[in-house]
Design brief:
Length: about 130
């Protein structure tokens, strides 16, 4: 399922870094590599730790949060290295902002798809109200 995120991340990186002179296909190829490695880290590190330390709600949530933080850090580093624009703090902040935006948008899309599948009605909004309360 996470590979469906590649077009979203590619569009975001292409859109926000249009001046980098890379076309969408190059962003798509780079993001395939980036997301594949992130999936590998989740599969080899996060999910086994989650299973090892229990499946309680707090423990499971902690490891998913840890995985997402690691993904944002990794994607920030990848975009910083990939983009040939100006070096320095501004480039790093742009890469971090793009990574954070991509992970948050993908999380929202995924949660909405799960809620729609579970409820199959306009009451899917209850999924989100239960998460908050």
């Amino acid at each position: 399922m996470a590979m469906f995120a590649v077009p979203l991340f590619s569009f975001l990186s292409w859109f926000f870094f249009r001046k980098a002179a890379y076309n969408y296909a190059e962003h798509l190829t780079a993001n395939l590599f980036f997301i594949t490695f992130s999936n590998l880290v989740f599969t080899v590190l996060i999910f086994p730790l989650q299973g090892l330390f229990g499946s309680g709600r707090g423990v499971a949530g902690f490891f998913v949060f840890l995985g997402l933080v690691l993904q944002v850090v990794y994607l920030s580093w990848c975009y910083y290295q990939f983009l040939p624009s100006r070096p320095g703090t501004k480039k790093m902040l742009g890469a971090f902002g793009l990574s954070l935006l991509g992970v948050l948008l993908w999380s929202l899309v995924t949660m909405t798809a799960v809620a729609l599948y579970m409820y199959r009605s306009p009451a899917f909004i209850n999924f989100f109200t239960r998460m908050v309360s």
